[in-house]
Amino acid sequence: MLRSLLIYLSKAEWARRIVMRWKIAWQVASRFVAGETPADAIRAIEALNAKGICATLDHLGENVTSEDEARQATDEIIHILDEIARSDVKSGISIKLSQIGLLLDVAICEENLRRIVERASSQENFVRIDMEDSPVTEVTLELFRKMRAEGYIDTVGIVIQSYLFRSDDDVRQLMEEGARVRLCKGAYKEPPEIAYPRKADVDASFDRLTEMMIEGAARYDMPPISECRRFPPIPAIASHDEARINYAREYAEEKGFPREALEFQMLYGIRRDLQMQLAAEGYPVRVYVPYGKEWYPYFVRRLAERPANLWFFISNFFRG
User: Fold this and answer.
1) Could you tell me if 230 and 92 are in contact, meaning their C-beta atoms sit under 8 angstroms apart?
2) Which domain does 21 fall in, by range?
């Protein structure tokens, strides 16, 4: 119930207007958001790189309401690609298609996506297309495959959510295509007709998909993380759940899968201890680094995932 309420609030404009006025909201959100400017984000990535950890940089924002807003968001994403190239940090980027016009017009989104992918390709960088809620799952995969068909096979990757019933078929097909996939549990509220409602089932699906990804990568000679560290291996396991991480490690070891070909991904500000432990053990570790002024939806979804963060926020708010 609490999670459903927070997910609703993450999309509510009235709640965004209220919460973003509270100073304490940004104080808590800054645990999960690198800052509001590209310079803030680059500094955060440099600090991660100094610890042997890579990044994927995300300019926060989604559900734009006009073609102009979609183009402005695209321009900002291209700008951050330029900043990554200028500063030579070890980072790719992550993007949401709703931020570049998907919910307005697929053609607008495709044009903006192509601009981003072209710039990333010219700079030898990587674009991870995030997966959003289920109404756009199919079109997101279609646009991902379209970019690959246009020659950007090494430039783009995709995200799959383990709580969706369809993900077994999606991962099976993506592994046949040799696609780079980030596996996560999923952060949106989905109906029980299409998604597992029970955590135990989501976890079991996550482990099953992890196996499929490791086996799929093995068919492509288990390509490791690139020398420049911007291009991830085929399987990227995005979780803070130590049981899921340990399952992936044990399964990979059982199959003789090299550590440098299995990447673990985590969110900025969460489980830094585990990030450092995995990096010290020789696994590629990549941190999802969000930045930007539109931090409210992302912040509230993080509260939904970790109730302890919500109580910290509330107690500090009433403390003044």
Assistant:
1) yes
2) 1-33+295-320
